[in-house]
């Protein structure tokens, strides 16, 4: 008896050591999370000679969590954070670099933890794919690092500077497929992760997609840009936390080429639509360059030029798709500067329909492909569910659960 027990334990041990997934694999479609803007952990290491404030650290012996680290967003320290997090644009190479003496890396490739929690200490404002992840694990038997993976990237940069991400994502899909008994993958993408995934899929052959991809689930995907990006260039964004000053965070936000990629697409907005209204001049998409000059962010126009080509390719993803998004949440569609005020002041935000961040027309971009591909496209809206709440709303979680239980 005793011997048999030892034998069994040893046997289990051997199996566990070599191929742990053989024991735990689920036959459900394995999931890879593709995050949006701000949706990946970032780590920084410092070796600086110049800092904006004497309280700022110059040298760090090792990499530390910089995004999202709430301790770094308090007064004064936030100035250090901005300097460490911002990018410098070089218009000759049309690429960006970190501040001199700062190295930034994206931890946890493949590990869902890196996108479930932006703050590794798990402080709640940093919860990201956490609720979707917990639902998949607790209710559907998914296993982190095996049938549930994460694909983080440096969200500050646009696709032209994220070439490595697309190569690695293909490898991650293939690897995840293999370790799950060749069950095709479901990609779950949020916000900017939607168009990132679209670019990725457009670049693969149909044969590859048929073999490796089961479906794509998008949550609040930014298919055609958003006026919100223009608002961030103009006045910044407080990330939904009222204690944070938009105007301070803006200093970092306006250095991100990805924000230029998220500007309203000319395939979704007409040249005649006023995006910014002032007494003297109205700005439409045709006046975007002038607008960036007038708000003194000339690089905004460079980012636009560098990324417009990624908006231009709107070929269908070529995979079965579930396009989920909120509606009926007030969403900025125009900046209105009252007569007499300059572009330095705070505009009134004229609101329209959307999910609070992305305009409705952009969220609905997926409908365009209904007649452009033979794989099915399911479209589901959630009234009153905003751009971030879609990651934790019970109806959304139920929809994802049902979808993954039946495909
Ligand atoms: C920091 O940079 C200096 C040169 O600027 C270099 O000599 C030193 O080795 C660097 N320190 C670390 C820890 O990388
Ligand atoms: C790059 O920026 C410099 C200085 O702002 C400017 O003089 C130059 O024309 C720019 N070059 C290009 C290619 O945009
Ligand atoms: C996933 O893998 C990473 C890297 O190997 C590891 O640090 C982490 O603990 C793993 N997570 C789980 C839940 O096993
Ligand atoms: C598409 O494929 C080309 C050629 O392999 C590669 O250079 C490019 O980075 C890829 N782009 C994306 C978005 O995957
Ligand atoms: C700007 O647009 C608004 C609304 O479309 C219009 O009423 C106004 O006259 C325009 N102003 C200018 C300066 O063109
Ligand atoms: C949006 O709200 C309006 C007014 O509150 C309501 O009439 C409409 O039915 C709502 N639309 C959706 C899709 O829920």
TrEMBL record:
Signal peptide start and end residues: 1-20
GO MF annotation list: O-acyltransferase activity
Domain of life: Eukaryota
Keyword Signal: yes
Keyword tags: Signal
GO BP field: lipid metabolic process
Transmembrane segments annotated in the record for this chain: none
Matches recorded under SUPFAM superfamilies: alpha/beta-Hydrolases (SSF53474)
InterPro entries: AB_hydrolase_fold, LACT/PDAT_acylTrfase
A family per Pfam: LCAT
Protein name: Group XV phospholipase A2
Species annotation: Cotesia glomerata (Lepidopteran parasitic wasp)
